[in-house]
Design a protein that fits this description.
The complex is a heterodimer of chains A (293) and B (266). Chain A has one domain. Chain A is 84% helix and 0% strand. Chain A has ten helices and no strands. Chain A is globular, with a radius of gyration of 24 Å. Chain B has 266 residues and is α/β, with parallel strands linked by helices. Chain B is built from ten helices and ten strands. In chain B, the strands form two sheets. In chain B, strands 6-7-8-3-9-10 form a six-stranded mixed beta sheet, with helices on both faces. Chain B is globular, with a radius of gyration of 19 Å. The chains are: A mainly alpha (293), B alpha/beta (266).
Chain lengths: 293, 266
């Protein structure tokens, strides 16, 4: 703050004391907070609409698109595969005791695979993408903002959203289904390997149950959700990068916020899409879900 | 280029107030002033990166604020902007950086583009070996010159320099000054140089204006405290201008301290 703003503040009437003054302050704070949120949401919405507009306004160049796809998709495969594998095994470890007590250990195949393709595969793939790619995008774009590279793009008559955001958005949107499939596959594999090799569950029954209780809808539901996660990660992270604060601290903060906000958005989207997709499922299959147990 | 009654505001803070400047084609205007007086903001407003709160910037008679995004993008191809930190894209080699505007706005075949890039690199006095390097691998002075080469790629009519010599050694500073002079000799090129280096100002300017930070001014004072030739600047007796030109701290330390305590007052 400098001297000019300071004088404007001192010109304001002194705050009235007492309880009513305190309430007035609280209401003012609340109003300011609410206004800040509304402005932020409006800002992200405009940013998203501009991004969508630029997807169709002009075709992307191969030499810009491919490196983005490589960074987002190919480089994320190992970490997503590893996470999927371990989560599959952990599911087997955690559910085995309960299922064995009921004498239903061969049903592990259905419960592990169902949780993976419906929930854990898409959400974990998205979380890893937000952590690995989302924060990196925010940091990269933030650094470009701080070092005036985004201004330089504009000065040369190149639109920064077209040039920087759209390739990353398309990369996340197109490749997150592939990453989800990878997480699903490795999870299913991990769950099976642990159940079969270490818990000694019979191969035939394990897969028979898995096939009976998991259908294409479950799998496609996960893929469908992942598209929303991918779009959310790209838009939130790029927006944070574009509106980065000053210096190294600003870049660090925008990288952290990119992950935190993407992650919260993934959870919210997951809940609401889950509710909506269950309604869709019930609409097409009024007899309700098949019983697991 | 004309700047008419321009005002710029960030949130509550006003940075520029009622600035009017007329820059005839072919002139080199140097804008001097201390840090935080709004020089860079003025430059960024001239190219439409910062939207003014009031007033207008006109280039060849057309107002920037009334232009659509597409027209503004097209107009910017006739500008060259040399950034303070060069602002080279660090994911690209120097050659790709310099060729970027060519690729973006022309259909020049690749071989021809690399010939243009090589000529530009020669013009700003860089060895050809830097072409394959990334911006982080070369020195600050080289980066500045590469930034200048990139700004020149599309043969701009108006070149804006944002503190082109800041952070360079005295020899490299003069190299940049010489380059600015050489660019000035191109036909019809108008330049605006923002700097606080008095050597640069004296050496390259046709005309100098000095901006003063708003918060040190009374509400009715003009923010442009000086406008004239380098010789007139040397003859000017205004203490604010003498203080800047001769680089004296004067009472500034005390003033800064007072401002600080004013800020800390609850």
């Amino acid at each position: 703050m400098d001297a000019t703003t300071d004088t404007t503040e001192t010109q304001q009437p002194p705050a009235t004391g007492g309880v009513s003054g305190w309430f007035a302050d609280q209401i003012a704070n609340l109003g300011e907070f609410a206004m800040g949120r509304v402005v932020a949401i409006g800002d992200v919405s405009i940013f998203s609409l501009k991004t969508l507009g630029w997807i169709f306004a002009r075709r992307q160049r191969r030499e810009v698109l491919l490196p983005a796809f490589y960074q987002i998709g190919v480089m994320s495969l190992p970490v997503v595969a590893l996470t999927g594998l371990f989560i599959g095994m952990v599911l087997a470890v955690q559910s085995y005791a309960q299922f064995k007590a009921l004498g239903l250990e061969t049903r592990l195949g259905s419960v592990i695979n169902l949780s993976l393709v419906r929930e854990l595969g898409p959400v974990l793939a998205a979380t890893m993408l937000a952590g690995r790619v989302g924060s990196a995008m925010a940091a990269e774009l933030g650094t470009m903002r701080v070092t005036e590279q985004i201004d330089a793009l504009e000065c040369m008559g190149a639109n920064p959203i077209y040039y920087l955001v759209v390739p990353r958005f398309l990369g996340c949107l197109v490749l997150i289904p592939a990453l989800t499939i990878m997480a699903d596959f490795m999870g299913v594999l991990g769950g099976y390997l642990y159940s079969n090799l270490l818990l000694g569950i019979d191969y035939h029954h394990y897969w028979e149950n898995a096939r009976a209780y998991v259908d294409a809808f479950d799998f496609l539901m996960g893929i469908f959700k992942s598209l929303f996660f991918g779009a959310a990660i790209a838009l939130v992270s790029c927006h944070h990068g574009f509106h980065c604060g000053h210096g190294a601290e600003g870049v660090g903060r925008s990288a952290t916020n990119a992950f935190v906000h993407s992650f919260v958005l993934i959870l919210l989207l997951d809940l609401f899409l889950g509710i909506w997709l269950n309604n869709v499922h019930d609409f097409f299959r009024p007899e309700g879900p098949r019983r697991l147990l | 280029m004309q700047v008419e009654r321009l005002s710029v505001q960030f949130g509550q803070q006003q940075v520029l107030r009622d600035i009017s400047i007329d820059i005839p084609a072919g002139q080199t205007l140097v804008v001097i002033g201390e840090s935080g007086c709004g020089k860079t903001v003025l430059l960024k407003t001239m190219i439409g990166l910062v939207r003014p709160a009031g007033g207008e910037v006109r280039f060849e008679g057309r107002a920037l604020s009334s232009m659509r995004e597409r027209d503004l993008a097209h107009l910017r191809t006739r500008y060259g902007f040399v950034f303070q930190g060069a602002a080279l894209f660090d994911s690209m080699t120097i050659a790709d950086n310099i060729a970027f505007p060519l690729r973006e706005h022309t259909r020049i075949p690749a071989a021809e583009a690399s010939a243009i890039v090589a000529a530009l690199v020669d013009e700003v006095g860089l060895p050809r070996s830097v072409l394959t390097k990334k911006p982080v691998e070369i020195s600050g002075g080289m980066r500045k010159r590469a930034g200048l080469a990139r700004a020149l790629a599309l043969d701009p009519l108006l070149i804006l320099y944002d503190e082109p010599t800041t952070g360079l050694d005295p020899i490299m500073t003069d190299v940049i000054n010489e380059l600015i002079l050489r660019v000035r000799k191109r036909p019809r090129v108008t330049s605006v140089v923002v700097t606080h280096d008095m050597h640069t100002a004296r050496k390259v300017a046709d005309r100098i204006i000095m901006l003063y930070p708003l918060f040190r001014l009374a509400p009715d004072e003009s923010q442009i405290v000086f406008a004239g030739t380098p010789d007139e600047l040397d003859r000017c007796r205004d203490p604010r201008i003498r203080q800047f030109v001769e680089g004296r701290a004067g009472n500034r330390l005390v003033e800064l301290h007072d401002e600080q305590s004013l800020e800390e007052r609850p």
